[in-house]
């Protein structure tokens, strides 16, 4: 566990205790970007329970905790850069809000700095932000959306994943 007085690995410039640490201790992230940063930090700290808990509830049982843990433990993370944060992708009148965060996560592999670029989708369900994982099976277009909006998948989250 990281001391609360250490600088947060998400590179916000804040101390861990006033940044991602509070979210790792059960507080809800106030924005998609804050959730993205806290998930990066969780990978750095190998906090796989947090990674699973902050994935869309309909996807949590589909995640491979062992594989996630092995990947986190064997990856030497070296930095995070938020490239773009698109908030309010969906109308405020809908019960579920969508946001997209583009980022670069830097890591070392064979003594060379590598970059993982991702443009991630986040959904706010009942006041809580979650990550939508595109690597696990998604609903078919005619099935209910995984975010619980009541819409079919093709008329909701699918449009934000393309």
TrEMBL record:
Q: Which residues form the signal peptide?
A: none
- InterPro entries hit by this protein: NTF2-like_dom_sf, SEC_C_motif, YchJ-like, YchJ-like_M
Q: Where is the YchJ-like middle NTF2-like domain?
A: 31-133
Alphabetized Pfam families for the sequence: SEC-C, YchJ_M-like
Per the database entry, which stretches of residues form a coiled coil?
none
Tell me which PANTHER family the record gives: ADENYLATE CYCLASE-ASSOCIATED CAP C-TERMINAL DOMAIN-CONTAINING PROTEIN, UPF0225 PROTEIN SCO1677
The record's HAMAP family line, in alphabetical order, gives: UPF0225 (MF_00612)
Task: Say which family it is in.
Answer: Belongs to the UPF0225 family.
What name goes with this protein?
A: UPF0225 protein NCTC10851_02258
């Amino acid at each position: 566990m990281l001391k609360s007085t250490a600088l947060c690995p998400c590179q916000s410039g804040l101390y861990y205790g006033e940044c991602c640490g509070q979210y790792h201790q059960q507080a809800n992230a106030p924005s998609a970007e804050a959730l993205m940063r806290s998930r990066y930090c969780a990978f750095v700290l190998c906090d796989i329970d947090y990674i699973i808990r902050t994935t869309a509830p309909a996807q949590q049982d589909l995640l491979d905790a062992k594989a996630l843990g092995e990947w986190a433990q064997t990856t030497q993370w070296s930095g995070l850069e938020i490239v773009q944060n698109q908030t309010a992708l969906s109308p405020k009148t809908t019960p579920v809000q969508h946001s997209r965060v583009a980022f670069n996560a830097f890591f070392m592999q064979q003594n060379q700095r590598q970059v993982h670029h991702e443009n991630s989708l986040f959904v706010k369900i009942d006041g809580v932000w979650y990550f939508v994982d595109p690597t696990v099976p998604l609903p078919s277009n005619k099935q209910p959306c995984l975010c619980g909006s009541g819409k079919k998948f093709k008329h909701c989250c699918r449009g934000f994943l393309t």
